[in-house]
Design brief:
Distance between the termini: 51 Å
CATH architecture of the largest domain: 3-Layer(aba) Sandwich
InterPro entries: MnmA-like, MnmA-like_C, MnmA-like_central, MnmA-like_central_sf, Rossmann-like_a/b/a_fold
Structural class: alpha/beta
CATH class of the largest domain: Alpha Beta
Number of strands: 17
Helix content: 10-25%
Domain tRNA-specific 2-thiouridylase MnmA-like central: 220-285
Number of domains: 3
Keywords: ATP-binding, Cytoplasm, Disulfide bond, Methyltransferase, Nucleotide-binding, RNA-binding, Transferase, tRNA processing, tRNA-binding
Family: Belongs to the MnmA/TRMU family.
Strand content: 25-35%
CATH superfamily of the largest domain: HUPs
Radius of gyration: 22 Å
Shape: globular
Low-confidence stretches: 1-8, 51-58
CATH topology of the largest domain: Rossmann fold
Domain tRNA-specific 2-thiouridylase MnmA-like C-terminal: 293-366
Largest sheet: 6 strands, antiparallel, barrel
Mean pLDDT: 89
Length: 376
């Protein structure tokens, strides 16, 4: 919500999701300062929270819970810890493992926003009489004159997080509050604000990587869950050029860690082009073979009314990726996207998020890609 919308002109009962980091603490403080009746909540997402963090990694530990509680005390708001570990395991962790097992590359942060923060948490908040869930995401919800809501990029593009929020529908947007999204401030200024407010998390390192993989070793995590399964690495002609210990340990576009003993004929680096979980085979080839000019995406979710007919948009394919011009159309429930200029390294399982200007139109999960014809 932005400060100029009618819904923010009256005090709301707001549930502030507090991860224990600086962004969510400042967001909660701003919501309280705006006159809302704010309650802080930390989500316990692991049955063994010590395992979810090492140094600056992750965001779901006992340490984080205590940091969130201290921040709530300074702000002067009630604070609770809600146990959503089982729901998180089923909807995020198990989904993550299953997607990699199927040869796809998922985005767990996007799934957490869809299934946990703006589904399980929001549903519980509404049942308890709260009006909105507040988070430290950098994005904006704008209320139009006709009463509809739109999700827009943050004012500061450098910190924009609208890509991982593209799964939110209009009902969820109606109860979402992002107090950091409509101000252009650097992270240093957010930390300075936290320090002025007396929040001890002002100097806390940012979390990064995947919160439930404490050491950042995704392949090691998957190996423990799925077991090692030796298979072949082949080139585009099908010739074996190496072996691997599990196709799930690779993603489309990967260059490092291939451990291919046989050099390419042209001496240039090779990249992962395809992953076949059925045959446990990984195909590698030149960078040019990564170019795709179209994709099909499934399970579309719209931030408002679904578009009708073909349209021209920009698309973002990664959380910190650049926008690219596309045309897109719903065909038999799937989103068909064609790129104006071929793009490289698009992996099934990733999300494609469509934009019109700064407005998020919607999101869908990439199911397949069409390889561009490489120049000879």
């Amino acid at each position: 919500m932005t400060d100029d919308t009618p819904q923010t002109r009256r005090p709301l009962r707001v549930l502030a999701a507090m991860s224990g980091g600086v962004d969510s603490a400042v967001a909660a403080a701003r919501a309280a300062e705006a006159g809302h009746d704010v309650t802080g909540v930390h989500l316990a997402l692991s049955a063994n929270p010590q395992s979810f963090r090492t140094g600056a990694r992750g965001c779901c530990t006992i340490e984080d819970s205590r940091d969130a509680r201290r921040a709530a005390d300074v702000i002067g708001i009630p604070f609770y810890v809600w146990d959503l570990a089982e729901r998180f395991r089923e909807d995020v962790v198990e989904d993550f493992v299953a997607e990699y097992e199927a040869g796809r590359t998922p985005n767990p942060c996007l799934r957490c926003n869809e299934k946990i923060k703006f589904a399980a948490l929001l549903d519980k908040a509404l049942a308890l009489g709260f009006d909105a869930v507040c988070t430290g995401h950098y994005a904006q919800v704008i209320l139009r004159e006709d009463g509809t809501r739109e999700l827009h990029r943050a004012s500061d593009m450098a910190k924009d997080q609208s890509y991982v929020l593209g799964v939110l529908d209009e009902r969820q947007l109606a109860h979402a509050m992002f107090p950091l999204g409509d101000t252009v401030t650097t992270k240093e200024e957010i930390r300075a604000e936290a320090e002025r407010r007396g929040l001890a998390v002002a100097k806390k390192p940012d979390s990064h990587d995947i919160c439930f993989i404490a050491d950042g070793d995704t392949q090691g995590f998957l190996s423990k869950r799925l077991g090692r399964a030796e298979g072949d690495i082949v080139d585009e002609s099908g010739t074996k050029v190496g072996t691997h210990e599990g196709a799930f340990g690779f993603t489309i576009g990967q260059r490092k860690g291939l451990r291919i003993g046989t050099p390419a004929a042209d001496g240039k680096p090779r990249y992962v082009l395809d992953i076949s979980p059925v045959t446990n085979t990984v195909t590698v080839g030149p960078a040019a073979a990564l170019d795709v000019d179209a994709l099909t995406a499934v399970k579309p979710r719209w931030c408002g009314t679904a578009p009708s007919g073909p349209g021209t948009y920009t698309a973002q394919l990664r959380a910190h990726g650049e926008e690219t011009e596309v045309s897109a159309e719903l065909v038999d429930g799937a989103l068909e996207v064609t790129f104006t200029t071929p793009v490289r390294g698009v992996a099934p399982g990733q999300a494609v998020v469509l934009y019109q200007g700064t407005r998020v139109v919607g999101s869908a999960t990439i199911a397949s890609t069409r390889r561009a014809v490489a120049a000879v």
